[in-house]
Predict the structure.
Amino acid sequence: MSAPRALLIVDVQNDFCPGGALAVVDGDKVAAVLNKYIAAFVKQDALVIASRDWHPRKTKHFKEFGGPWPAHCVQNTPGAAFHPALKLPARTIVVSKGMDPDKDSYSAFQAVDGRRRPLRDILKDAGVKELWVGGLATDYCVKASVLDALKHFKVYLLTDAIRGVDINPGDSKKAIDEMLKAGAREMTLENFSRKRIT
Ligand SMILES: [Zn+2]
């Protein structure tokens, strides 16, 4: 039986890391921390899920077509690939979002797997009760995913495994406050190792 806990890694893709089309400062630094959580979750036989932004070339999400962002994470381009420092196990469930050219889709709960199963169904079917969330970017996709997750699951926000865009200074901090106020619990690798949470 799988553990009632799952790890959700949000959008740790090349375009959101230094050198990418929509780089988050130190975005790649989340990988080393997430790798430790991945190892612990694999050991517990818990689900590891990785979401990805997976846009068509033409989408209202991009500036060129009236949206807020430069083109990023276009399907099947190197920018859309997971960052190579992230050590995803072979059995990782990949869920994709942002395919609809009329929608932004920041939340991983708008993502589906290869069989078009929505994330929520994947988690429910696996009996998941607790979702641990890290990745990119704090003030957009992580925030949207956590706020959605809180409607159905107990949520731990991995505060040392997230980085934000901070278009306005303080956006990430505000996003973290908002997630905690909404009921997310804070977790760091240090606390995780110390408490040996099982
Ligand atoms: Zn996007």
